[in-house]
């Protein structure tokens, strides 16, 4: 009777999933400012569209050749300083107004002072997954960024440092903030302060190779107490199996080259090429969102990742069925 328990646990802390990453429904301050700016820009450009389109339609109707009308051309006018100055100066003023408000919004988001109590995380883009490190807590996880919600002004927003291990990526969770590029040998910063608990979907927004479209990310915004629970759980080292079969399974895992790329804190595995697996089973997906994290999917993934995410760094390890069973059994203990 494992399933009813799992179901009850899920029901106890329901997090709304914002699967449609809708930038028109902002739920954090940076996204709000970008949204408000986009409304202003759309308002101005829509006004221009209506004026220009209206004049064209007026000219088409008003000056249409009519049956029995005047066969001669209308009087030809050459040059008009007034009109030429107007159509040069007005667009320049509009462009400068747009530059001004955009620069103000960008600077306002970028220059946000960090309040005491801010959460810090480092985002590292990899081909093709996201690494999230929390230097203050010693936590390393992947593809699902946990942050506390903000309930009052300036209350524990999350400040992110963005780095890349390989090529240019872009971190984008449309409901929370604008895109920020993730550039090798450069450190960019951004921040977010989700207002409502929920799981916000995002993705890499800069083409970074064949699996760019499978470089998905989630921001799990939790109440401060749920976030504290998550931190406490993630800080723990991997549980040591006591069951003899699982002990054997761990030995198998530790002898395979899995540990050259993956870390399981508290074990001989401390690779840094692939995602940290210490608490893999607490994550919803594997392969940066390519599939749900279920035992069957996990087995299929380890068996042949190249069939699921062609080109990804994880090779087909050619494990025997027995090795595969043991590796999956061990990884399932990493809650
Ligand atoms: Cu990373 Cu596109």
Structure, described:
By secondary structure, the chain is of the alpha+beta class. It is 38% helix and 19% strand. It has helices at residues 2-12, 29-62, 81-110, 224-235, 244-255, 258-261, 295-303, 305-308, 321-331, and strands at residues 17-18, 119-126, 129-134, 139-142, 144-148, 158-164, 169-172, 180-182, 188-192, 198-204, 216-222, 285-286, 291-292. The strands form three sheets. Strands 1, 5, 7, 8, 10 and 11 form a six-stranded mixed sheet that branches. A hairpin with a 4-residue loop joins strand 3 and strand 4. It is elongated, with a radius of gyration of 27 Å. The two termini are 19 Å apart. 30% of the residues are buried. Residues 1-12 have low confidence and may be disordered. Bound molecules: dinuclear copper ion.
* Number of continuous helical runs: 9
* Rg over C-alpha atoms, rounded to the nearest angstrom: 27 Å
Main β sheet profile? 6 strands, mixed
- Beta-sheet strand percentage? 15-25%
N-C termini distance: 19 Å
Bound molecules: dinuclear copper ion
Average pLDDT, all residues: 90
- Poorly predicted runs are 1-12
Globular, elongated, flat, extended or rod-shaped: what is the shape? elongated
Structural class: alpha+beta
Estimate the helix proportion, in percent.
Answer: 25-40%
Name the helix and strand elements from N-terminus to C-terminus, one letter apiece.
Answer: HEHHEEEEEEEEEEHHHEEHHH
């Amino acid at each position: 009777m494992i399933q009813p328990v799992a179901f009850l646990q899920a029901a106890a802390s329901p997090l709304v999933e914002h699967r449609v990453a809708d930038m028109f429904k902002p739920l954090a301050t940076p996204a709000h400012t970008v949204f408000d700016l986009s409304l202003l820009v759309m308002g101005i450009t829509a006004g221009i569209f209506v004026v220009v389109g209206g004049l064209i339609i007026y000219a088409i109707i008003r000056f249409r050749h009519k049956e029995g009308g005047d066969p001669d051309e209308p009087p030809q006018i050459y040059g008009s300083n007034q009109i030429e100055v107007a159509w040069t100066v007005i667009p320049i003023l509009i462009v400068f107004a747009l530059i001004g408000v955009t620069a103000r919004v960008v600077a306002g988001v970028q220059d946000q002072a960090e309040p005491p109590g801010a959460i810090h995380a480092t985002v590292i883009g990899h081909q093709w997954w996201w690494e999230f490190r929390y230097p203050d807590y010693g936590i390393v996880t992947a593809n699902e960024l946990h942050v506390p919600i903000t309930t009052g002004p300036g209350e524990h927003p999350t400040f992110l440092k963005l780095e890349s291990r390989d090529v240019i990526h872009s971190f984008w969770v449309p409901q929370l903030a604008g895109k920020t590029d993730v550039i090798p040998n450069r450190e960019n910063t951004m921040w977010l302060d989700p207002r409502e608990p929920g799981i916000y979907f995002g993705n890499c927004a800069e083409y970074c190779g064949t699996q760019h479209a499978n470089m998905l990310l989630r921001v799990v915004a939790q109440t401060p107490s749920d976030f504290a629970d998550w931190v406490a759980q993630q800080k723990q080292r991997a549980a040591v199996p006591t069951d003899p079969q699982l002990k054997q399974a761990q030995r198998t895992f530790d002898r395979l080259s899995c540990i050259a790329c993956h870390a399981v804190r508290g074990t001989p595995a401390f690779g840094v090429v692939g995602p940290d697996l210490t608490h893999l089973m607490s994550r919803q997906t594997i392969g940066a969102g390519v599939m749900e994290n279920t035992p069957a999917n996990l087995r299929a993934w380890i068996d042949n990742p190249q069939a699921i995410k062609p080109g990804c760094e994880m090779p087909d390890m050619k494990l025997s069925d027995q090795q595969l069973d043991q590796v999956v059994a061990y990884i399932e203990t990493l809650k």
